Every structure is written in C-alpha cells, then in structure tokens.
Write a sequence for this structure.
C-alpha cells in the first residue's frame, strides 16, 4: 500500500486509518518539564508540543504507566484521572495545529533507583544490576540490584500498559507507542544478558518475547491495533547491561516476523544508544538493520537516529522506510519541517537544557517564518 503513496518526506501519508500531513515524525524525547509529585503534564508542555505540530506525527516523551515504572525526575504519567485531564489540553493543542500525537507508554524496569520509587527496589526480569546510573533529585546515582518480578507482578505490569493505553485514548491521543527500546523493561525481557529467568518468560526467543506480546495483545485488544506502534532498538549492544548476543539477535528476528500478525500503525526502529564506531555515520547501522527487516516486516516502518533532510529523503525515496523520526533537531527547531522544506539553516540544541531549565531551552527556540 505504501508504494502507491508519494515518496517524499513532505507529502501526506496514510498510516492505517490515520492521515498524516507529511512523513516527518518527531521522535519521543523526555524533557523533564512535568510536575514531579503527581507526574502531571504542565502548561509549558502545551506550548512545546503545539510549536512542533508541523510534524506529520508527534510521538510524546516517555510517559510512565505507573509509579513503579519511573526512573527519572519530572516526567509525566498516564495512570491517573488528573494526568489524563492535563494531557487533554496538550493533544487538543496539537490537533488544533493540524498534527497527530501518539503517547509513548513506558516502564524503565531496572534503570531506576529506590529514591525514585518510594524506597522500593526497581523491578526487572532478573535480579541483575545493569551497572548503570539513574537520575535522582540528588543527582546521578549508581543503579542497584533490582527485584526479579514475580509472575503476578508481570501480569500487573501488563495490565498497567493496557490501562495507560486506554487512558491515552481518553486523553485525546491518536494512539500509543509501546516503548520496547533503549534498554528499558521490555528490552530487558528481550535481552538474554538481562533476562535469566527459568520460567515461561525466559530461556527461548519465544519466552523472552512473551512479555512484549502480552503487552501488545492487551493494548491492541483495548484500543485497536491501528492505533498502536512499537519502538525497538535491535542494535543496542554493551549499553546499560544489554548485550547483543546471538540469542538476542535471533529473538529480534522472531519478534519482527511475528509483528506481521498484528496490523499495527507502525514499527519504529531506532539506532543503538552507543556512539557509532570510528568512521561509521550516525545512521549507518540502523540503515543496515532496517534494510534487513524491511524484507521481513510488511507494515509501516519508522526509521530513526542521526538522519538529516537529505538522508531522510533518501530512505523514503528508496522505499527503505515509510517515515523518518527526528529527535534532537526538533528540540532547537520547532519549525523543522518548514526549515527542511525551504532548505533553511538549522539551530543547534543546547544539551544543558535537555532535561532542565523550565522555559529556557524548551519553548524559547525561534521559528524562522
Ligand atoms: C533529550 C532527549 C530525550 C530523549 N528521550 C527519549 C524518550 O523518552 N524515549 C525514547 O524512546 N527515546 C528518547 N530519546 C531518543 C530519541 O527519540 C532519538 O532516538 C534520538 O535523539 C536519536 O535521534 P536523532 O539523531 O534524530 O536525535 C531522547 C533523546 C533526547 C536527545
């Protein structure tokens, strides 16, 4: 179906039942401007997302599905009525400006700290410390050995994903992106290095993918598969305790093949979190991976990491992906689509304000026109 549509970044794209004004996606980005105690979205977040509504699709920052899903400060949630009410104002703003918005539903698993969980241990498939760090109000702290989830805790978490998806639709989101990437909980189940369970959630590829598919089954049954995307980072290796060994590679082959059974809005494949190897471009690895999975997966693919206008246009023209997601470029260029369209220069984002600074470095980047 995608082949009958115009192959330009700037042309509308029909993603299942959803009509996008172009093929440019704003990648999910945690910006830590929510109210911490109740994880409530704030008024400046309405402005921020409204400013970026030139994108065909906005994927929200990671939105926690429960208190136990949290691993950062000042991130929003989608499990309380108050949160749903606050998100409504944001989704409305985005729709008023002509774009669409999915909520990225998120559980960090072991990439957290008891300081962020009311003193409780983070949850994970196995009790293995990722030997990483978490951001707390007292600054960066070393991660701890998490608690191995009981089957009951796994079921509760699947139900939390489901509730979050229903809440997202009630809050006016056009759909949800299940966060299965970047070393967080779902990724921890997939990776053999983080999952050494002896029950039905560990061992074989099918078992390590079980949690992901239980989440997808519940979420798609609740809101419709055309409103659901999944983000995976199959290139992640040697980062936050996640290794890309042969078992894990085979698990991705299994997962991506099986995703054909769902009529999802899209599969979002993002590049590895490590810096590229010497002489390797920022997007080269994910390009190779997406080329491989393009032959396997028959639905829409979003590609991400390190793309610019020219390389983004190229992947669309070559039919390697259907949509291109841009992260950091959207931080400093709220009008990124217009800048791309008219070949205008891009502003550089300030990393010091990525996760702090209130309005500064958040809603004060200028549009050109
Ligand atoms: C400030 C910042 C916050 C991010 N937060 C998230 C997040 O909440 N969820 C997620 O899946 N990826 C997150 N990412 C990764 C981006 O979605 C994207 O994959 C990354 O920036 C690479 O794309 P780019 O090269 O176009 O910037 C974040 C990236 C940045 C720069």
């Amino acid at each position: 179906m995608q082949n009958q549509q115009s192959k330009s970044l700037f042309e509308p794209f029909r993603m299942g039942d959803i009509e996008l004004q172009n093929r440019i996606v704003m990648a999910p980005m945690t910006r830590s401007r929510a109210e911490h105690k109740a994880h409530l979205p704030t008024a400046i977040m309405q402005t921020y997302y409204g400013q970026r509504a030139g994108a065909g699709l906005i994927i929200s920052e990671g939105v926690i599905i429960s208190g136990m899903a949290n691993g950062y400060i000042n991130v929003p949630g989608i499990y309380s009525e108050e949160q749903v009410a606050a998100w409504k104002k944001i989704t409305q703003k985005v729709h008023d400006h002509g774009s669409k918005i999915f909520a990225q539903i998120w559980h960090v698993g072991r990439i957290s700290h008891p300081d962020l969980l009311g003193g409780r241990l983070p949850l994970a498939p196995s009790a293995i410390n990722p030997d990483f760090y978490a951001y707390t109000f007292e600054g960066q702290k070393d991660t701890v050995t998490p608690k191995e989830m009981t089957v009951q805790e796994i079921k509760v978490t699947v139900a939390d994903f489901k509730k979050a998806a229903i809440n997202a639709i009630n809050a006016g989101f056009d759909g949800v992106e299940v966060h299965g990437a970047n070393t967080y909980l779902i990724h921890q189940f997939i990776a053999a290095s983080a999952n050494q369970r002896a029950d039905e959630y560990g061992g074989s590829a099918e078992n390590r993918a079980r949690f992901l598919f239980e989440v997808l089954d519940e979420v798609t049954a609740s809101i419709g598969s055309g409103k659901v995307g999944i983000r995976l980072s199959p290139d992640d290796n040697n980062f936050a305790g996640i290794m890309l060994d042969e078992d894990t590679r085979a698990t991705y082959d299994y997962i991506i093949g099986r995703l054909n059974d769902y009529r999802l809005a899209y599969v979002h494949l993002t590049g590895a979190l490590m810096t590229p190897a010497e002489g390797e471009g920022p997007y080269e690895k994910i390009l190779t991976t997406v080329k491989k999975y393009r032959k396997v997966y028959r639905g829409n693919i979003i590609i991400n990491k390190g793309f610019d206008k020219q390389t983004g246009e190229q992947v669309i023209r070559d039919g390697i992906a259907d949509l291109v997601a841009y992260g950091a470029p959207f931080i400093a260029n709220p009008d990124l689509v217009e800048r791309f369209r008219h070949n205008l220069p891009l502003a550089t984002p300030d990393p010091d304000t990525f996760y702090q600074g209130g309005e500064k470095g958040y809603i004060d980047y200028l549009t050109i026109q």
Notes: Residues 27-30, 61-62, 104, 179, 181-182, 231, 270, 304-307, 326-329, 354 surround flavin mononucleotide (CB under 6 Å). The mean pLDDT is 96. The chain is about 30% helix and 15% strand.
